[in-house]
Amino acid sequence: MNSFQQTVGIELEFAIVYKADAFANIPDLTPSRPLANVPADQAIQHFLKQAGVASNLARETPEDAPYQDWTVDHDCLEFTPAEEASIPEGWTREHIELQSRVFSYVRDDWAAEIQRVTEVLSMMRSDYHCAILTNRTSGFHVHIGNGPDFIPFKTGKRIAQLFTAYESRFDQMHAATRVLAPGLDIEPFRCEPLVPFWFAPPSFYHWNHNADFHILPIDNRIHHSDNENVFNWIQRIEKATDYQGLADLSIVNSVCGDKLGHHAALNFDNCYEDGFYGDTFVKKTIEFRQHIGTVDFQSIVSWILFLSYAVQFCHTADDADFVYLLTKTTDVTFTLADVLAAIGCDDHLIEHLQRQDESQELTQRRHSDSDAAFIDEPMVAELVANNDEEQSDAYQWSTIVKRCGTKFDSGYYGLDPTAAALPFELADVQYLLGLARAKAELQCGPDDDTAAPLARASAFKLLANIYARLDNSLDPRSAVHREFDAWVSEN
Predict the structure, then answer these.
(1) Which of 100, 313, 448, 466 has the fewest CB atoms nearer than 10 Å to its CB?
(2) Is residue 416 part of a domain?
């Protein structure tokens, strides 16, 4: 496969609440506007530079090299009316987005630099009595690229396929508010068509290809020859011929409104050859948007490590190993920990990313000391305490399990709770792909760029047909043989 020079960039979204004059009288820091207090974005940039982190305010970022340094920008988080009312006179808030520079994953010590950034924010809490808050409307986004080039297209397709196949497991790593099933008319998702969202799962886009603005049904989704399952979705991805086609899979008209990649948990919009809607700078990155906002160093680094393992696996695995892993998604005993181990995550990272019960506290996802400890204004201290409680509630394991279970039981993941697991071993997948390749070469000749994706798409079609007919109360072998014989006899 083509060479891969992995790069990483991140975006941290948060709100900062502070006394209007909190940053007055700081040496070498003057307000950007005459007769005004120093705003938080200017203070953050000043402290980043003091910490040795090169940075610019958004308005000062050079257009020809926008990701050479960190950028301190503004964002659009939402506060509830009660949160708005908790900000007393003499205090203000800014919604901030910190955009990192582009890191070489191998050559740069990106973790150390990110740690310096989070330490700056911690210092602003303790020394300047600021509240730094994340909520359900804030995000932590990661961009992964390939140096100055696009990620090899086969790798990009595999990333889409892996995150489609294992949405049911990867959801378990996220806050409950990030486990979405937009358009599913069942609790706890009933109200979501009316709520804006910016991290829709892959399943949402696949279901909505034929939804025609209707609420998605929850009955008889999978066990019918006319219904799609997760392998039909994987086949659809495989049949894309370029990044334009892959990004276009995230354009749907749904009961939740018109959606595209920038509303998605997995965003390919930055891979358009001409940029996203006329961007002057083409990022050439795949963006991962599902993670809830955080400024916790350990959470940030762990998520980057997971994504990097996933992307590297998608780039280096041979076809048989990759397809075999995809088939394991139908096995309900194949856990999140099993998936993480299969893509190469080490034991320490797996332990951080997955839990089995409510007693395992996710202390790494919260500040070691609440911001409230540094706030002497009761109203703001209460705002911080309520935010801490909201963050704790978002990671209640029982709530996450309930939401994932609701998606699974409804078939939203493209998995059928009444179906048996696909009864394949690695050798079976190798044999299947060999036959698929022979069939493909009869159609288009031996050219690998043409025959290989055609063979994989044919194999995924067979897997979809087999899975649609598996029943966990019956011996699966008859369904396998019937569909396999029909597939072999096809031209």
Answers:
(1) 448
(2) no
CB-based burial label for 382 (10 Å; 0-12, 13-18, 19+)? middle
Q: Report the distance separating Cα 389 and Cα 403, nearest Å.
A: 19
Short-list 45, 32, 178, CA closest to 99: 45
Asked if 380 and 464 sit in the same domain, the reply is no
Written as six digits, the tokens of 101 are 């520079």
pLDDT in tens, 280-296: 678 999 999 999 999 99
Rounded Cα gap, residues 129 and 117, in angstroms:
17
Cα distances (angstroms) measured from residue 52 to each of 131, 321, 427 = 23, 44, 53
**Conformation bin of residue 137: beta by default, left when phi > 0, alpha when psi is -120 to 50:** alpha
Please tell me whether residues 122 and 31 are part of one structural domain.
Answer: yes
Per-residue pLDDT tens over the stretch 106-157:
999 999 999 999 999 999 999 999 999 999 999 999 999 999 999 999 999 9
Residue type, 205: Y
400 and 431 part of one domain:
no
3-state DSSP assignment of residue 71: strand
Burial class (CB in 10 A: 0-12, 13-18, 19+), 236: buried
Domain total of the chain? 2
pLDDT digits (tens, 9 = 90+) for 379-398: 999 999 999 999 889 999 99
Parent domain of 470: 426-489
Among 376, 410, 444, the domain-final residue is: 410
Question: Rounded distance, CA 420 to CA 418, Å?
Answer: 7
Residue 82: partners with Cβ closer than 8 Å, 6 or more residues away = 386
What are φ and ψ of residue 305, in 5° steps? Answer: -60, -45
Which amino acid, 197?
F
Worst-scoring range by mean pLDDT, 102-106, 341-345, 444-448? 444-448
Shared domain for 215 and 306, answered yes or no, is: yes
Phi, psi of 320, deg, nearest 5: -65, -45
The answer to whether 346 and 312 are in contact (CB under 8 A) is no
The answer to whether the CB of 134 falls within 8 A of the CB of 293 is yes
Query: Are 303 and 361 in a shared domain?
Result: yes
Tokens found for residue 12: 């941290």
Q: What sign results for the dihedral spanned by CA atoms 470, 474, 476, 480? A: negative
Report the b/e string of 266-278 with b at 16+ CB within 10 A: bbbbbbbeeebee
- Per DSSP bridges, beta strands 55-57 and 286-288 are unpaired
Q: Tell me whether the omega of the peptide bond preceding residue 188 falls within 30 degrees of 0, making it cis.
A: yes
**Residue 222, CA distances (Å) to 86, 161, 322, 328, 410 in order:** 48, 19, 24, 18, 10
Half-sphere exposure at residue 247, Cβ-oriented, CA atoms within 13 angstroms: 21
Residues 480 and 371 in one domain: no
Pull the structure tokens for residue 343. 């893509």
- Strand, coil or helix: what is 139? strand
Same domain, 301 and 435: no
